[in-house]
Design brief:
about 35% helix; seven-stranded antiparallel beta sheet; homodimer; Alpha-Beta Plaits; Uridine Diphospho-n-acetylenolpyruvylglucosamine Reductase, domain 3; 4 domains; 20 strands; about 475 residues; Uridine Diphospho-n-acetylenolpyruvylglucosamine Reductase, domain 2
């Protein structure tokens, strides 16, 4: 059983609302002619281009094209525009809210073959990349420069996709999100026009911020075909530390003090007792099964040592366990293994279950309340739902583990996800800190932002009047 | 003599293009009724609401209103919208590109009476303020919390105005610009609707980034009536340092290394030889009359000491003079006096002259080339034009000193400003790093951003179809 996405259909419900079949056939014919075996309508490839890791039903595109250049992307968009056929940009397909689904059919544009680093400007700490490169490939490619790209959302996602969903992850607390780390983009707009949103200067006050408008737009306003990214120097020294707490309130109070004292912590991650239990079982560890903070410090040797010492003091003030820190790479890796394994380890709590990933973000003063209420709520609904959080940002993920074939469990998890989104919004937070709206969170957008959604719709209608760019995402149906 | 602004008139040229006089009279009547002595059509007040510090001709609004609340702002906008009369938001009037001018007449909305700090959330390091509070008043008001608002554009500008022009200033290199330090805004949109662009969470991926769309929009899309701002802890220790260089290339190379080595410098300011000469004369100092870097470090005592030492080494590597640093407040003040006095000191270079402030921003690898070419160009045109720069961002200001009554000098400065903007754009930079487009830089926008400007226009037309929100700014005439 899976959740329907009727809320995602702007042009009515079900298959009836798909665009004219003749038009689709025409577009497929043109693309086949133009791209040869780089265009396909084969079902297996199409079904790989709409997979979702959640309960949202897969909705196949009509065809998949693999462009090699921005001109080819522009050709595809222009052709689709002419025949009013939807265009859905695709990177690694790791988005979590149905962003790559094709509720109205159309053409999926797989950008993974546009995966080059076009230029690295070492003196300016920036680089220009194509959208299909993944963050690991990028960092591998620029390692010799002594620079790195800081955003790490967990998955080895493509940079175009990361920009489109305004991704962030574990070290956003220090380095910001994609919003802060993209200087400019090149994009193909709905009429096939190629634009560049900004030059390469670090800052500008020249006109509307189209860069930030396209970041987080999930491909609904245009397709990002090139990104100018901020880079950072690889830190001279990296230290890691861990600390257990008797309860979530003490752990969060320690996080607040760390941020308030201005300690430039690079990562400060929260694992709840359930996640720690899962990790122990998965990796044969013996961590105390209580809330755990994992920290990472970047800087000079003296600076990370000072940061660690200051943090250790804060942790003690909040009844944290003995604060262990290390700069040794092998010990650091071991410490972070727990965090990196958390997703897969969670399935130890219920083997064979499906995990329904969801995230919210609240002001950090409300984090402990929100996490604790969510734990109680999940428990009261009979859900096993481990938590990991980017605590410094007030952002956390829950992974309810359910049997997708049990309608009652599916209903329970849907109800829980809804409760969590609304609860976060009631706490002055957001229904999604880093996964985006896609199809899955569309119904919470108006509750969160009220009348502002009408102005988002005005922007969407102005830029994409034919509604061909990833339709059925973000903007609720009219 | 002053520069015409015909380029700023979207509806044709000159007085003929002002809106219907009957409509204006009607709106003035309604506002007089509604606001009593908080609305005026007196010429002296009106002329205070269009002053520009440059050569752009003052263009008076038809009336000035002083609202006390967002509801009153919404009333004004709704009334103006009904009669298609322009609305021009006004803060401290310190913008530099004609942003507060009224080329088509209309109502200036003075927001300085909406100047309250509504809430400080110490645990979340944020606060909510009204748009009319100035940055100094804000920092005065929150001092007891141990927190401060980091953006310092020089002028004691209002926060609403700073957001609207995407201001930054001396410590953007460490703390970012207004773009990075505004979490959410409340705004009155062109139809009088009041919206809030985001909740208070530190990050979100919920829909289009309307916050960033309004920041830097110069009031052309709506009026900002409330801001949720990021705050930072007042640093435990602050150190300052200065260093002279024999030429601009060495100074800029030292800046690049400082940034590349990841030293989290809070300010790194460049004064060229002309500015140093002016400052010496103004303040009776004896600084070497060669390019000077002024630096500030924020952190713990150990950290600022380490940063200063590392920086000192870099400066020496680039043939800098002996690197003097201090943590003593009185010595720090003295050191920064030179920088703070630079604007007024510049007039020592030509007493009685008018200074025409302009700014550009380039990738820092191009800063030395750009500054040096600008110095030569100014000299070749017979212009005295001192330079101060936010060197860590590649952003610098020039202040050509001219006789505004000499048509040849006016023509020369216009030609120089144009040359500088185009030269910066050719270096992959922007025609304005922090002053905005307003009326003065409108003609360079398309050269800088090409087809992207058409999409800005689409956004403007969608949100403000009647073109009543600060018309004649940013978007070039149709």
């Amino acid at each position: 059983m899976s959740i329907g996405t009727s809320g995602g259909l702007r042009m009515g419900g079900g298959q009836e609302s798909r665009q004219d079949e003749d038009n689709t056939a025409t577009v497929c014919g043109i693309l086949r002619q133009r791209f040869g075996d780089r265009f396909t309508t084969g079902e297996s490839v199409r079904s790989q281009h709409c997979h979702t890791t959640t309960l949202i039903s897969p909705q196949l595109p009509d065809g998949v094209v693999f462009p090699h250049s921005v001109e080819e992307v522009a050709d595809v968009v222009l052709t689709c525009s002419k025949f009013r056929v939807p265009v859905i940009p695709f990177g690694t397909g790791t988005s979590l809210e149905g962003q790559v689904n094709a509720p109205l059919g159309g053409i999926s544009v797989n950008l993974l073959r546009m995966n080059q680093v076009l230029r690295v400007n070492e003196e300016d700490l920036d680089c220009i990349v194509q959208p299909g490169i993944t963050r690991k490939a990028l960092n591998e490619s620029i390692r010799d420069t002594g620079l790195f790209f800081a955003i790490d959302p967990g998955a080895d996602a493509s940079l175009g996709g990361m920009a489109s969903t305004r991704a962030s992850g574990t070290n956003a607390v220090r380095y910001g999100t994609m919003r802060d780390n993209v200087i400019a983009v090149q994009a193909v707009m709905p009429n096939g026009e190629i634009i560049r949103t900004a030059q390469r200067a670090r800052k500008t006050s020249a006109g509307y911020d189209l860069t930030r408008l396209l970041i987080g737009a999930e491909g609904t306003l245009g397709i990002i075909t090139e990104l100018t990214l901020r880079l950072h120097g690889i830190p001279e020294s990296i230290a890691s530390a861990s600390c257990s707490f008797s309860n979530i309130f003490n752990a969060c109070a320690a996080v607040i003090d760390t941020i308030q004292f201005g300690i430039p912590v690079a990562r400060i991650e929260l694992l709840d007792e359930l996640t720690v239990k899962a990790v122990n079982s998965h990796s044969g560890l013996t961590l105390p099964e209580s809330p755990l903070l994992l920290l990472e410090f970047h800087g000079t040797e003296a600076s990370v040592s000072e940061q660690s010492a200051a943090c250790g003091e804060i942790m003690r003030d909040h009844d944290g366990s003995e604060f262990q820190w290390t700069v040794k790479p092998e010990e650091r890796s071991k410490l972070w293994q727990a965090r990196h394994d958390a997703y897969w380890a969670s399935f130890e709590l219920r083997r064979g279950a499906k995990g329904i990933a969801t995230d919210v973000c609240v002001p950090i003063s409300r984090l402990a309340d929100c996490v604790s209420a969510a734990q109680e709520k999940a428990k009261s609904m009979g859900l096993i739902a481990p938590i990991v959080g980017h605590a410094g940002d007030g952002n956390f993920h829950m992974l309810p583990l359910i049997d997708p074939d049990d309608p009652e469990e599916v209903a329970a998890v849907c109800s829980f996800v809804e409760w969590l989104a609304e609860h976060a919004v009631d706490m002055d937070g957001t229904c999604t800190g880093e996964h985006g709206i896609g199809q899955g969170k569309m119904k919470y957008l108006e509750r969160e932002l009220g009348a502002a959604v009408g102005w988002m719709t005005a922007v969407k209608n102005a830029i994409d009047p034919l509604d061909i760019m990833n339709p059925g995402k973000i903007i609720p149906p009219a």
